[in-house]
Each structure stands twice: as structure tokens, then as C-alpha cells.
Amino acid sequence: MTPAGILLALALSGPAVTVGSGDIEFLDAECRRLLQGCRRTARDGTVVFTPDGQGHYGALWTRDFAYMVEGAGDLLSLGAIEAAIRYLLAGQREDGTAPDRVQVDGVPVYSAGPAGRPLGAPPTDNSQFLVKLVWSHWKLSENPQLAREALPKLRRAMDAVPRRDGLVWIDPKVARSPYGFTDPVGKSGFELFSSLLYWEACKNLAEMCGSLGMAACRDDFQRRARRIERGLGVLWSERKGAFLAASKDCRQVDVWGNAYAIYAGLPLGEHRARVLDFLEKNYESYVWRGQIRHLLRDEYWQRLLTKVAPDTYQNGGYWGTASGWVAYALAMRRHDLASRLLRELLDDYRRGGVCEWVHGDTRRLRDYVVSAANPRAALRKLRSERRLEVR
To answer: How far apart are CA 172 and CA 251, in angstroms?
Structure first.
């Protein structure tokens, strides 16, 4: 074994995050229930999976479905996953823009917000999530056929994402939603989370292209990923010891983005230890009952595309969407803190249901699928790396 391999083996054999076997069973059962409850039949007969089981979001959202498949695709049939992916691919615009969602009547919607009142230009993340869906299906099915067919569309989708110097870029003069779980937030300049997703999508595309014998395509996306690795420092705050959400509007520390950078495995160099320090030191300022605020406590987004009251929704609510990423990042240093987060999260779900977001006594939109699917994905990742102990 190489010295690097020995160090990795030692790291993976250290103290583990602990959860109860009943917690695993509960989360699996909730994912099954939520996936069944969010099913709708589109006009053409395709079964689509809406973000929640209450009928609030009545369409197939690209990013939500990508998270569902990533975290709980093993609980769905491969045929259902493929059909829903093809439903989204059929909604791609001629210029390559991936749909934000496709309604049950088959009509694609490209921008965030109500179909008749869009929040500006299309969000900067749907292309990346379309790639994640096809890649996840390929990994689950071990069949490259869908990837082979979808690849031209995926390449056009990635080219449609606005970028500058390799990173995802939002023109300050253009109203545009950023990463969709902050879609009413008016970030501008270089945008962190969508850039992280772009890096991840490039890695996935390079792998798919390589497996299909497409060396030029593989090399192209490897180069794009390396540009992001080199350029991400433009979003670093030395004073905060963490990455900012954006470089112009909303130059604020993005808790979710910093955790996701660790979770996704970006090579952060010397910044990695600082990010882990930040997440550990500020734990009490962004976690409530195991759910995660986008910003630190008492901070609110500096610019919004539409009114969102403080301490509600994406402007101060606590979300289960990011809980798994944070738990994973904390597990690199503080397995006890990661264990506490997961225990408190699942206890809250048992008591109050799996909601989209919570704050104090406010609980919004029960049966929100990603709040269960994303933590499940993180638990599976921890287990695969031998960082999880089930008791």
C-alpha cells in the first residue's frame, strides 16, 4: 500500500458517526412513503415525482428529482427513473437551457417562481442536476444506453450555463435565480453553489465520456473541472475563513455551500481545514434540531429577487436538505457532533414530520421528499467510507 493509501486507511478507520438501527429503518421507511406519496401521472402517462406529497409543488422539478434519485434511487424502479429523466430531457430548450421543471401537462418551465411571474432568467443549476440524474441512473442500472443517448443534450445544457473564468457567473445587471434552493436570492457575480455543482457535473460527464470511449469529451470536461478548482479562491474570505455565496451581491458566507464543497470532494487545498474549522466553530449558529440555515443566525440575504420575510423560507428557515452535507463535513473532525446532528434531525422528523423548512414553532410543507432523501444519501456515503457505525 502506498503512503497515501495508508493515511487514507487510517483516516477511515478512526472514530465513526453513530446512529441507531432504528434510525436507519425509520429514514428508509420515510423515503419509501414520501416517494410513493409524491407520485403523479402526467398527461402522457409518465409517472412524475413532485417535490412533496401535499401537492404544493405540482410538477417534476429537475433538482428535486436529482436529489431523490441520488439519495433514494434504490427505492425506485429503474424504469420509472428513466421515464422521468426522459420527460425532463424532452423539455430542454433549443438553446440548451435545461428546464427548471416540467408540469404534468408536459409544458416545461425554465425560470424559478410561478410560471406567469418568473424570477428573472433561468436558474444556474438545472443543467448540472440534469447531468447528475443521468449519471445516477447509469450508476444504478450499470447500463450506458441512456447516458449515450442523452450526452449531446447534456453537453448543450452545460454550455448554456453562464460562466466566466470557468466559474458560474450571474451578471449583476440581469435578474437571475442562482442555485435553486436559494432561488429568490439576488446573488450576482461568481456564484459558489452552482459552481460547485458545475465541477461535480464536469467530473460526472468526464467519467461517462471516458466510459463511452469519447476521449475529447472526457478531456474537455476534465479541463473545465480544473478551471473551477483553480478559480474558486475568488470566493474565499480570509477574514471569515470560509467561501462566500457570491462575489458581488450577497457576499456572505454560504453555510450550505461550504459543507457541500467538503461533501462533494473538491480539492480545496489549505482552505479545506479552514472550512472544517468554520463549520465546527459556528455549529450553534446555523443548526436547529438538526436542520440547517443558509446563513449564520441573525444574518439575512442582502439582496432578494422577491420579498421573503426574515426567518422564513430561504431567508432564515432551517432545512433538512443540507443536513447530510453538514453531518458529513463534521464527521471529518467531530464524529460526536455529526452524530448529534443526525440524532436531533431524525428525532424532529419523528415528532413533527419531514418538512421543507422549520423555524421555532413554524413548520412548513410536510412530506417534503428531499429533506429525507439527502440525509439518507449522506448516511450511505459515510457507510461506504467506513465512517458510520449502526448500533
So the answer is: 13
